[in-house]
Fold these 4 entries.
Entry 1:
Amino acid sequence: MSEIIGAIFDLDGVLVDTAKYHYLAWKRLAAELGFNFTEKENEQLKGVSRMRSLEILLEIGNIHANEKQKEEWAQKKNEWYVEYLNRLDKDALLPGTEKYLEKLQKHCIKIALGSASKNAPLILEKLHITSFFNALIDGNCIEKAKPDPEIFLKSAEAIHLQPKECVVFEDSEAGICAAKNGGMMAVGIGSQEIIPGADLYAANLSELCNKKFLLEG
Ligand code: MG
């Protein structure tokens, strides 16, 4: 196995807890459209692009719409989501985020973001963690959604590393598949039952701070 010298992070569910705000904004849209949207149903939207999320929501509500209408609803949801993002504070950081990024940086590991979110730069700025990243690849830079490996291949390229030199940290099954499809090592943030296929699992980054993984020497 090659030496791992690059770390690629998913954002929502790995570094920050923004899933609840996505949920509240989608729930508000569902209410406007006349149906209830549960937290359990929301699980299907994690790690999925904005437009695909909307399509899943409309399938749940049994609502049909043309492309123009879908664009309008997606935009509306995003405006509500951004309202929440503008009020974000450090409480939104998941356990261990800053400590682990600091440790990796200290060990000269290159760090990239590989997030499906088009709001990723705003979230990093709000939480003052932008400076940890050597490269940012987000929903604005990609054409194919996870499990296609495009996002992580572009992330590796942006930090000038081969895929086999990188490890991906992910909380979604599609994301783990994307990493493996790209020839990278994958760390699942969560449990094997919910996100199968990773090479290693941790409940959060705080757990990894205390392990030797990537941090020897
Ligand atoms: Mg995620």
Entry 2:
Amino acid sequence: MTARILDGSGTAASLLSQVADRVALLRASGLTPKLATVLVGDDGASKTYVQMKVNRCADVGIESVRVDLAGSITTAQLVDAIRELSADPGVHGILLQHPVPGHIDERAAFEAIAPDKDVDGVTLTSFAAMSLGVPAFQSCTPGGIMRLLDAHGIELSGRTAVVVGRSPILGLPMGMLLLRRDATVTYCHSRTADVADAVRRADLLVAAVGRPDFIRPEWIRPGAVVVDAGYNPGNRGDVDPAAADVASWFTPVPGGVGPMTIATLLDQTVTAAELRHGVRP
Ligand code: NAP
């Protein structure tokens, strides 16, 4: 079997085109959506991710403001900087680029984001609402994966879903979103006794580990849907690409999950602006 492609680049492009139309409507009424990005330190990959988000904002007409802070900043200083953005009426969405340096209390920094500006879906408020099925901003990578699956008509209800990884921004919310859609969800993590055994049972696999080619092709159940959220140096995902010979659907790396993450961020930024200005019910 050769898997069909879950086309993240194409799906993101059509989502961004709708986002651009909504931005044009807002701008015509004198409102410009604005995203603030906060970057701490000078990690090369994080800088690239922020620049990509800023570039995509410009493409669709969203204004962006960059707040780049030294890696030596304290948690209190970072929290103050984010609170300032939370209080700024001109800012509609705030993105704190993850990960922050190890000495910073990331949770405290996330919680400084006003819930109505939490367009990256990282606060406790957003996570709780998303888990309970209350309308909320979703964590962008899992939210983007759900949009990608829906765009390709992938059935989720009653399917056995296995999520490898349980990070607060990716694996954990991924499983909650799949559960809300009536999948039967299993999480694997670094203490799971036999990841291969769990993966073999998956109708739908989401790999979010951060280890290149960690998921072996022989673990994949024939006909499974395989979503590779991993992005490792050298454009390598967390799933050995040979898994595409066994799966029914497969996300390329790059061009799968990555573009959907950014498109979801921008979609949610415009939603935040629409909600604030009463353009959206
Ligand atoms: P993370 O915070 O490092 O979490 C990794 C998860 O993998 C943890 O839950 C960890 O378990 C689990 N894990 C580690 N080793 C394992 C093993 N041997 N067996 C089973 N589970 C294991 O990483 P993340 O931020 O979630 O990112 C994961 C991947 O997604 C990375 O490649 C990252 O670059 C990529 N990513 C892509 C996008 C995108 O837009 N494409 C966005 C975000 C992240 P424990 O909880 O037990 O430690």
Entry 3:
Amino acid sequence: VIALLLVGAAGRMGRAVEQAAAAAGDFEVMGRVDVPGSWPPGAQGWSADPASFAHGRAVVVEFSSPEGCRAAAVHCAARGLPLVSGTTGLPPEVEAGVTAAAARVPVLRAANFSLGIAALARALRAALGALPPEWDVEIVERHHRRKLDSPSGTALALASAARAQRGWPEGALRFGREGRAGPRPAAEIGVHAVRGGSWVGDHEVLLAGEGEWIELRHVATDRSAFAQGALAAARFVASARPGLYNLDDVLSAKGR
Ligand code: NAD
């Protein structure tokens, strides 16, 4: 059984991880960290400070805020605890703190904890490696109407990976088209953001040749997709050496 310390435990992801951990059977949540006003009424086992939990070996799973991430990284480095971290939009000094912790403990960071997206990224690399370079790459993503950033970080990561594999400069990404955009340049990757309704996360990579095309598509239907990936990551770091890891390392470990 792997002990878990959840940071951001009252949040949407914290609750999704707790629920998935209870169903998985090989985890025990031994502590929950969140800001005081967010604790459920009459809650036991909650604290605002990760250091208030004394435990020999727990994996810290953090989906909170930049400050929560910073505190989790400091705590993990000081106590020798593995860290799984998913907070997005970290300022550079917090990223640096996470990297510093990875010199002492295993740390797994991902902007998207879906194992399906990690597998899609692999499939994309394989397809680009096999196809003639004239095939066009376009990415279409859909998210709910409340999402603040466009395109999604995941679409950007997929587009950047494809761009790098083709050896094209950063300016090759094209965000939407309108007016007389003219014929499509060969060294271009179109990225298109659709917003509306309650889509959790839908990413389509279109690879288009002459008279044929391929669609690689991943759809997340709810947060449990990210929670399952976070638990797979927790199993991975529980027995990993210190270092900075990503979800592709989890896929590789599964294949062994
Ligand atoms: P949320 O707002 O529902 O939950 C965040 C929780 O963290 C809240 O309960 C909040 O009180 C708590 N928190 C804030 N500061 C804290 C601190 N200093 N210490 C402890 N707890 C603190 O948000 P969410 O949807 O659960 O997302 C949380 C973060 O995870 C966001 O950055 C989001 O973008 C990211 N996220 C990442 C993935 C992924 O796959 N990597 C998936 C979903 C969300």
Entry 4:
Amino acid sequence: MQVVTTVQEMQAVARQAHDAGQTIGCVPTMGSLHAGHASLIRHAAATHPFVVTSIFVNPTQFGPTEDFDKYPRNLERDIETVSAAGGTHIFAPSVDEMYPPGFTTTIHLRGIANKFEGTFRPGHFDGVATVVAKLLLAMAPDEAFFGQKDYQQTLVVRRMVRDLGIPSSIVVLPTMREPDGLAMSSRNVYLSPEDRMEATIIYAALCDGMEMAMRGFNDREALNKIMRTRLESIGRLDIDYVAAALADSLEEPEEFQTGDEVVLLVAAKLGTTRLIDNVLVRVGG
Ligand code: PAF
């Protein structure tokens, strides 16, 4: 396992791999790796001899009142996880390495980035798009693997890569869940035992919506209401949004058509922990 900490060295190591005829798979992360990340690394390792996981808690995607300082960090344990999952390299740059003094460039996407997470976390997707572009330029992957849990992020990254002509394919793999349905997330460690029990309501609400949409129920507001009703059965849940939208554009027509692929999205706080989750469903099954 080789740990690389500078952009220049990362680019050199990636170039050597390409020159030797190897393909590169990468998994961009903020560390504190869980089984969901390990699964992405295993998928990358199944098709690429060179598999690099980036570990970088990116300050520019956190708002001023968010959890950047307390975001869990554990490089030693992450190295073990990457190695056990079949990764060959870790790219773990410092903040100064990624944002040297005088750094002034920001990638801003219109449209798709300006609703849902974009509304509740202003500037978040500017930070994500900018850092992912930098990470892809450093790691030069043939394929970059992301989890579906951050659904809107995957749309933003795909669009940014297409618009800028970055020569990497984006692969999105399904969300990994705990046995009771809670989506795996590095932030789950913040949940108190009571929060952890109640957090399962989020996936339960998404399943309610999914079941109705599969049965052909296509009224968007009514789908939202079904999910919201289930979420509100937990008094302590502070809902940011609950929404049904077209999966490829995030547009919200009043009615969906049979056969439309729809994403159901929830973001809510339990205590001090903000959780997001989503499911994809085809209207009418
Ligand atoms: O999903 C994440 O962990 C982060 O948003 C990412 C893509 C690594 C960018 O910092």
